[in-house]
Amino acid sequence: MVPVLAVAFSGAIALSTSIGSPALAATSSTPGWLGSVGSLGSSADDSYAAVAQRISAVMAEQGIPGAQVVYSDRHSESAFDYGLSSVATGSPVTSDTVFEAASLTKVVASYVVLQLVDEGVLDLDRPLSDYFDYSRIAADPAAKRITGRMVLTHTSGLPNWATGPSSPEFETTPVSTIFEPGTQWSYSGEGFYYLQKTVEALTGTPFEQLVRERVFDRFGMEGSDLVTNPAFDTVTSVGHTADGTPKPVRNFPRANVAYTLRTTAADYNRFMRGALIGGEGLTPGTRDMMFTPAGSADHGGSDKEAIDHIEWGLGIGLQNNELGDAIWHWGDNGPYKAFFIAYPETGRSLVIMTNSENGLNAVDDVVREFFGPSTMYATRWIKEAE
């Protein structure tokens, strides 16, 4: 059922739903409507609220307990906070609610690595083994040919994970390549962790500190952590299974640049707008290199049309469709799903955080709400990548 609308005089929009349906609150720095082309207009607040209602309906239809959505362009920003942080407690999602960003962490890590490239600390085409003796790959000569560029473009040859990355045995479990490094595309969290360990050895600094200093502090990301911060306990969302069952909240005592970022959609939007679209902290050439296709992201799926429209840059997905060239990434930590997409040439962007295994099912409809009709090759590609 579509929520019943109540508009507060403060300019924020609160939606009260029928029994069993979560509420959605929406705020906008420039109240107005978001039409089929995603541009803010000057219509009354009730038109803006109608967009919030439609987002609420999409989330409810997909069985997603809670979500944050932030849309931005060069002139305005609109934020929507939907539903419940936990169905067990009934706590609402607010703009301060923290979600697991999952693999959106990799984009933050890639940005830090590229800063180090600009500073001459790391050469993307030099084998990481020249910098760091990684005991987990000691038995595999091929792994010693892996470069930073191969890691960022997912051509390292390492598997996604050799064992559970949160397990006690992770640090001592050997990992080997599954193909010759640099010869094909295969998504790899292990590659990013190898790069993390290399950077930590080169700089003498934990990656968590590098991210805090170079990303969180720079962009004012006060609701984000890479190692679990107990100060966020009261605002941390609970992940839910596909049937809505809440899962225990996980702690990340060890940073892993492949997946342990916890953040808000507003914080991630600050990073995306400043670092990716704005290029802050990178030389113009390095920022452009980040968005330059390094090759096909052919994961072997059957949807060849989607594969033909997806390539990989340095730590980030690239999509070409009717709207032009986009940068994007998805995150999947089981009961948390996340997604962002941005068009650097036009400055339009969208961040979605959810606390549900069903989260990615809402992406196409939410993207369409702000960008209008277009072919979402990225989500088609994701379906066969997992």
Automatic annotation (TrEMBL):
<dbReference type="InterPro" id="IPR050789">
    <property type="entry name" value="Diverse_Enzym_Activities"/>
</dbReference>
<dbReference type="InterPro" id="IPR012338">
    <property type="entry name" value="Beta-lactam/transpept-like"/>
</dbReference>
<protein>
    <submittedName>
        <fullName>Serine hydrolase domain-containing protein</fullName>
        <ecNumber>3.1.1.103</ecNumber>
    </submittedName>
</protein>
<keyword id="KW-0378">Hydrolase</keyword>
<dbReference type="InterPro" id="IPR001466">
    <property type="entry name" value="Beta-lactam-related"/>
</dbReference>
<keyword id="KW-0732">Signal</keyword>
<dbReference type="GO" id="GO:0016787">
    <property type="term" value="F:hydrolase activity"/>
</dbReference>
<feature type="signal peptide">
    <location>
        <begin position="1"/>
        <end position="25"/>
    </location>
</feature>
<feature type="domain" description="Beta-lactamase-related">
    <location>
        <begin position="51"/>
        <end position="359"/>
    </location>
</feature>
<dbReference type="Pfam" id="PF00144">
    <property type="entry name" value="Beta-lactamase"/>
</dbReference>
